[in-house]
Amino acid sequence: MDLEFSQLTRWLALIKCPQFGIVSFRALAAVLPSPTDVFTLTPKELSHYPLKACHVKYFSAPNWPWAERMAHWMIHNQVRFISILDAKYPLLLKQISRPPIGLFVAGNVDVLNSTQIGFVGSRSPSSYGRQMTSHLIDGLRHTPVTITSGLAVGIDGDAHKLALDNGLPTIAVMATGMQNIYPKRHCNLAERIKNFGCLVSEFPQMYQLFSITSP
C-alpha cells in the first residue's frame, strides 16, 4: 500500500537524520510502535531514548521542507518508498548485516521478491561478452526469473535490454539515486524497465551517497 503524504514525509524526514543508520533505526524501532513516532516526542523525552546527541538535535527540529519537497516529487513521479518494515521489502536484502532502512522504487514493486539472476560486467565488453550475455538471457526466456543489473553502459545495459526483448522482468539497481538516471543515454531504457520491472535505489538523490556514513 502506498504511504499517505504525511506518512511518506515522516519517513523521508527520518532517513534524512545525520548519522542515522540501520543500527540506530532498529534501536528506535524496538521501543516505539513506529520509528516515525519519534517526531511526536519532546526534546526532553528524546533524551531518554537510545539516540545520539546529533539525533536528538535533529529530531527536535527535523528538515520538514526537504521531506515535503521530496514527497511531492515522489508522488508526481510515481516513486514509492518501501521501508524495511514493509512486507514488500526484499527478504534476502534484510539478511545482510547493514540493509538500507528503505528503498525508493519506481515500477512494479512485486518483482523485488522474485527469483533473480544478476548480470554485472564490463563497461566496454568484448563481442564475446555481449554474445554470451545474449546467449544466457535468451536461454532464460521461458523461466520465471527476473534479470537484475545496474543500468550502466556495457553488459548491464545489454542485460536489461535483452531481458525486455525476451519478455523477462528486469530490475535496475541505481547507485546514483532516483532523481539521477545515469547514464543519460539510458533514460529511455529506464522508462521501459519501469513498465516491466522496476528501478530501485536506497538513495533519493545523488548527494546522499556522500552523506550516509553512519551505523
UniProtKB/TrEMBL annotation:
InterPro entries linked to this entry: DprA, DrpA_SLOG
In Pfam terms, one family for this protein is DNA_processg_A
Q: What SUPFAM superfamilies does the database record attribute to this sequence?
A: MCP/YpsA-like
In terms of domain of life, where is this protein from? Bacteria
> Domain Smf/DprA SLOG spans what residues?
81-207
State the coiled-coil residue ranges.
Answer: none
Q: Which residues form the signal peptide?
A: none
Q: Which family does it belong to?
A: Belongs to the DprA/Smf family.
This chain's protein is named DNA-processing protein DprA
